[in-house]
Amino acid sequence: MQKSIPLLMIVPSLLMAMAIIGYPILDLAWTSSQEVSRFGKLTGFAGWENFAEVFGDQLFWDSLWRTGIWTFFVVVGTLAVSLPVAIILNDDFYGRGLARVIIMLPWSVSLTMTAVVWRWALNGRAGLLNATLMDIGIIDQPVEWLATASTAFVVEILVGILVSIPFTTTILLGGLSAMPQDTYEAAMVDGASGWHQFRYITLPLMKPFINIAIVLNVIYVFNSLPIIWVMTEGGPANGTDILVTYLYKLAFRFGQLGKAAAISLIMFGVLLVFTLLYVALVSRGEEDAAPEDEKEA
Amino acid sequence: MSRKLTRSLLYWLFLSPLVVVILFPFGVMFVTAIRPRDEIFTYPPTWGFSEFRWTNFSEMWVKTNFGGALMNSIYVSVLATAIALLLAIPAAYAMSRYRFAGKGLYRNFLLMTQMMSPIVLVLGLFRLMMAMGLVNDLNSLVVTYAAFNLAFTIWMLQSYFNSIPRDLEEAAWIDGASHLTSLVRIFLPLAVPAMVVAAIFTFINSWNEFVLALTLMRSSEDFTLPVQIYAQVAGRYQVEWHHVMAGTVLATVPVAIVFSWLQRYLIRGMALGAVK
């Protein structure tokens, strides 16, 4: 009886997660093996046909390629901005509280709203980005930012970076605040310059946190629909489609449920790999931390 | 002292481009929301405008059924938060206070659910809700949001529960209190701060969610705020941008204020939940 108490306490949450997150995966696996009529009805077993169709689809490969570019540049760009920002925010200076609040601000706004506001700010005729750039004299004609796929995609990547900065900075700040202060004092006594301190102390100690930030960002960015969906819906002419937007169109515009389910499963597989990577990283971090606890005890 | 001053100036100088880019959309939002309608598509585009047209807000409220969407968002977010907490509290307590078989397994399972994004499952979820007759029913969002926020809530609570000393409960048992009484009268009151923080984050996540709301809510009277605002922009020939921006201001600013006040707790929760 005593033994079953903790299990009873866990069961409700387990059932909930199983029903809402576990079951749909099974359903996707089932759907991906079915033939689907034009009206979205499953009409019979199709084997691997849906997967074959996906792999034979040029739009799938284009979207996959673009997903890679999107994920890579957003994750790398975010890290390149967040690392110096986190180091600054960890230091003591006038107005640090305000700086923290401003830099965390994009996190509180839903991606949808951010994307809607940017869509308007980038408007080719009356957008205020054009107004600003014309005021400073960088351009003298309004630019149609979202009308061509290549420009639109670059802009979307930049917005993606902007909204990922708060989360990444938070993780890095967590790492920096756990940094042992005496190491720096020792280095200072030994006459290490600021750059050397960064290169040989901060960076190696930060590595686990940087790794975790990278893996988590890869997972989130890879999965992110709202920015591209709201700003261009994957257009013009599928030119900014990534896997998630393509998947969404297949499922809810074109009724190609089998194909959409197959892509979902492929994405699920990719996510699984990254999640396992994350688990490995976290548990390695815990092993490193374990001797600390023993010392204390 | 002056060293700190030069350092501060240098830091702010370095941060200034980022600060400008972050504040830019907020500026766009306000400036568009309060300008007269016929000054929106001026050429050449300009930040300036002739007067503050505050009536844009009340006009938008009536014309776009903002109140209805607001109520839907509140309904979904409040209930999802309540359910997530109700399920997470016992689970977090068990994870924090008991050793049992399958604990590590459950931890990893939670991690998996945390990593699964709604977009990958959206087709499966849609078919599930279809089969249960819950499409166009706000309760379908309530359950899904609760489920997707469980993992984070459990972690956050568990890490806080770990910091509440066991002695307090044990002392209560010795005094003859049952486990349940000590749980309700000693433990839970101590855990209130953590529950409040976890609740607010679940609330904000639910408030901001887009993909599931877009998919599961098909008729406009069931829209939550993000979908309602998106619907005024997508696939329309003529977009009333001053209304759209007035809507984003109203939907965004209260949440941003609460969030700014809470962000330091988030740093702590992240460090405990996600990183460790």
UniProtKB/TrEMBL annotation, chain B:
Protein's job: Part of the ABC transporter complex MalEFGK involved in maltose/maltodextrin import. Probably responsible for the translocation of the substrate across the membrane.
Family: Belongs to the binding-protein-dependent transport system permease family. MalFG subfamily.
One cellular component (GO) term of this entry: plasma membrane
Segments passing through the bilayer: 9-34, 74-94, 115-135, 141-161, 182-204, 241-262
CDD domains from the UniProt entry: TM_PBP2
Sequence ranges assigned to domain ABC transmembrane type-1 in this UniProt record: 70-262
PANTHER family for this protein: MALTOSE TRANSPORT SYSTEM PERMEASE-RELATED (PTHR32243), MALTOSE_MALTODEXTRIN TRANSPORT SYSTEM PERMEASE PROTEIN MALG (PTHR32243:SF50)
Keywords: Cell membrane, Membrane, Sugar transport, Transmembrane, Transmembrane helix, Transport
An example Gene Ontology biological process: transmembrane transport
Protein name in the entry: Maltose/maltodextrin transport system permease protein MalG
UniProt membrane topology term: Multi-pass membrane protein
Domain of life: Bacteria
Compartment annotation: Cell membrane
